[in-house]
Amino acid sequence: MKSGPTSIGALKPDPPRIGGARPKLHLPRLAELGRLSRCLDTELLEDPALPEYKVVRAYRELQRMHTWLGNTAAVLRLLRQDPIPIRSVLDIGCGHGGLLLEIRRRLGVEVIGFDLRKASAAAPVPILTGNAVTETLPRADVAIAVCVAHHLSGGDFIRLIRNVSGSCRRFIVLDLVRHRLPLALFRGFVCPFLCSLNAKDGATSIRRSYTPQEMRCVVDTALDGSDGEVRHTVAPFYIRQVVDISW
């Protein structure tokens, strides 16, 4: 495994550089102050008995939220920066396919989704049903997983990464960061604009997510002994972290 640059580094990192410059704040100290124990509560949207109309409304709202929080733009930017022309994208944990629809519209590539929940007949893109940790995945140039990693244990996340390596040459993982700062920002500035289901699940998701150190440790373990290369970045205010793996 070859380790690329990371904004956090190993388990005992030096202060990260954001945009190439050393930040004024000592971020490892800030990370220590914002430490939260990992929550293992399930989320409301994971309930298979949830009525379909609530699922549809929740996914539609989540797609809008990812757009105005910058997550959609971050994924599109990374896809555009691929040194090899991309012809197909696989979205793991795609929900109803809203992000894939935007990727197809913006980049003109073939798209396919893979999700535990059976897709609606009205889904705008092809979506397969299955467990991405254990089942064979469709082949694609690049796989993405947005806010999926925090649903997985460390062992399952490792197995997911290794499973993806058998069908894709690149895997982009965008997820939340377990820290008091993004949790406070979410509760103060995002929750008021969400339905109660997404507001509650969003706070739970942040508490379920990995710290940057935990994320990097899991990824390094998954890639140990392989030729995988990884770049790990953490956004300001810990609003997101991105792991970009290439094989």
How would you sum up this structure in a few lines?
The protein has helices at 27-33, 52-68, 71-80, 98-107, 154-164, 180-190, 196-208, 212-223; strands spanning 2-6, 88-92, 110-115, 127-129, 142-146, 170-175, 229-234, 241-246. The protein is an alpha/beta fold.
Following the backbone from N to C, one meets helices and strands in this order, namely EHHHEHEEEHEHHHEE
* Major sheet details: 8 strands, mixed
The total of helices stands at 8
CATH architecture: 3-Layer(aba) Sandwich
Ordered list of secondary-structure elements with their pairings:
Elements: E1 2-6, H1 27-33, H2 52-68, H3 71-80, E2 88-92, H4 98-107, E3 110-115, E4 127-129, E5 142-146, H5 154-164, E6 170-175, H6 180-190, H7 196-208, H8 212-223, E7 229-234, E8 241-246
Helix pairs in contact: 5-8, 6-7
Task: Give an overview in words.
The protein has a single domain, classed as 3-Layer(aba) Sandwich (Rossmann fold), CATH 3.40.50. Helices cover 37% and strands 17% of the residues. The protein contains eight helices and eight strands. It has an eight-stranded mixed sheet, with helices on both faces. The longest helix is centred in the N-terminal third of the chain and has 17 residues, at 52-68. The chain is globular and about 40 Å long. Residues 8-26 have low confidence and may be disordered.
